[in-house]
Specification:
Elements (H helix, E strand, L loop, with lengths): L11 H7 L1 E6 L3 H18 L5 H4 L7 H7 L2 H11 L3 E11 L7 E4 L12 E7 L10 E3 L11 E2 L11 E2 L11 E2 L6 E6 L4 E3 L8 E10 L10 E6 L7 E2 L8 H19 L8 H24 L3 H5 L10 H10 L4 H24 L7 H18 L9 H16 L8
Parallel strand pairs: 12-13
Antiparallel strand pairs: 1-9, 2-11, 2-12, 3-10, 4-9, 4-11, 5-8, 5-10, 6-7
Helix pairs in contact: 2-9, 6-7, 9-12, 10-11, 10-12
Length: 413
């Protein structure tokens, strides 16, 4: 199944009848590589993959995720399906390590999200090759028209919180389709669509970023959850989240922790027919998860706080350092200041060499570092890597400058 490269031509009729669309190109290859690099830079700095809390509502913590949930190509496509007023209810980062046994059982999201609406769509964006071998999403066409039975299995390798699973007898494996995607492409699916994914048998990670959008209509209910308005106006009673971009790390921690408390309190509720054991299990899990959000908020135990502590990091080469450098330069104003400073330095050096004004060389570091440090202290709210990695940091300024000129790094959003 193939679509053209723009969201302007999506087949809304097919979506209504089958419950999904793919592939739709969102990012160029350079942007897809950049976003994966920014994500993995955070993981490298903290010494482990993003944990479950960091993988949920990541747009409140990281600029790469914020950029994706606001991406105009994604929103243009979603608008054609659910209307011009759009909320981002949540996001989920699904990473399957190379050769891992992790999988997602066949399930329907609508059964446990606590959302009373029909206008809910997931945009699943691939940041690595998503193939049948790497564990891409598989779906049953047309299965979004009814709700099926689901059982909580709590299976060890299941990426779902409760291991939600539709019984085999209610599935139709012969009709299932693998929605294969290249990095930077996305699929769209209705939140009642039956879907899942197999284990990753390749030698590369499979990274998928699932964005859950809901129409911001007055009749939408979401069990005391919160959401981020990404387009249009909000007509619901859902609590609005404060956008993380432009906020300092402490503000981001607090907003993310508040949003996660609402989310776990809503999504870890038992079904009406749940037994005493299931209710007790979910109650304990829910309370533990809420306490964890307070712990993370107080201690600042997340990748962003560790990313700001560059003094504890070591890099064997500039290739290893550059993803860290990009992660330290996520604020668009900061990037513009770095670009301006580097451009002025290059122009100033050329002027000095042309006219032999050697004493002006003293102005070079003032101009270069002046613009850069304003970006760090007032917009990034972090400590310049220059103090720990002076040579790599200087080289990074020039590499990012030329990456901006080539369109690999954006200063437009």
């Amino acid at each position: 199944m193939t679509l053209t490269d723009t969201a302007n031509t999506i087949d809304t009729g097919q979506y209504q009848s089958e419950g999904f669309l793919f592939p739709i190109k969102v990012l160029g290859s350079d942007d897809a590589i950049r976003m994966r690099a920014e994500l993995e830079a955070v993981e490298k700095l903290q010494g482990h993959p993003l944990d479950k809390a960091q993988c949920n509502k990541s747009y409140l913590l990281y600029d790469w995720a914020d950029e994706l949930v606001h991406h105009p190509v994604i929103l243009d496509a979603v608008e054609q399906l659910i209307g011009p007023d759009i909320l981002c209810l949540m996001t989920n980062l699904f990473t399957k390590e190379a050769g891992s046994k992790s999988y997602v059982s066949m399930h329907q999201d609508a059964a446990y999200w606590g959302v009373d609406a029909d206008d809910v769509v997931t945009a699943w964006v691939a940041l690595s090759p998503a193939t049948a071998q790497s564990g891409v999403m598989k779906v049953e066409p047309g299965s979004h028209k009814s709700i099926r039975t689901q059982i909580n299995t709590y299976a060890k390798d299941n990426l779902l919180t409760r291991g939600q699973e539709i019984p085999v007898e209610e599935l139709e494996p012969e009709r299932q389709i693998y929605m294969e995607l290249k990095p930077g492409e996305m699929s769209l699916h209705h939140f009642q669509l039956v879907h899942g994914s197999d284990a990753n048998t390749t030698d590369d990670r499979r990274i998928g970023f699932a964005i859950r959008y809901v129409a911001a209509k007055s009749n939408v209910r979401a069990d005391n959850q919160s959401a981020l308005l990404v387009r249009g106006q909000n007509h619901t009673n859902i609590t609005m989240e404060q956008r993380g971009k432009g906020q300092n790390p402490t503000q981001r921690y607090r907003e993310h922790a508040r949003a996660m408390r609402r989310l776990v309190r809503s999504m870890l509720l038992p079904e009406k027919e749940a037994g005493l054991g299931e209710r007790a299990r979910l109650f304990i899990t829910r309370q533990a998860a809420v306490l964890l959000t307070y712990y993370r908020q107080i201690k600042g135990d997340n990748a962003m706080s560790e990313a700001n502590n560059s003094h504890n990091q070591q890099f064997g080469s500039f290739k290893e350092f550059y993803p860290f450098y990009l992660a330290e330069h996520q604020n668009v104003v900061s990037r513009r200041l770095h670009f301006t400073g580097t451009a002025l330095v290059l122009g100033l050096v050329a002027y000095i060499l042309t006219f032999g004004l050697w004493t002006w060389l003293l102005a070079v570091p003032v101009v270069g570092y002046g613009f850069a440090w304003i970006g760090h202290f007032f917009f990034e709210k972090n400590k310049p890597a220059t103090f720990k990695f002076p040579f790599y940091s200087l080289l990074g300024d020039f590499v990012m400058f030329f990456d901006i000129l080539r369109g690999k790094v954006s200063i437009l959003r």
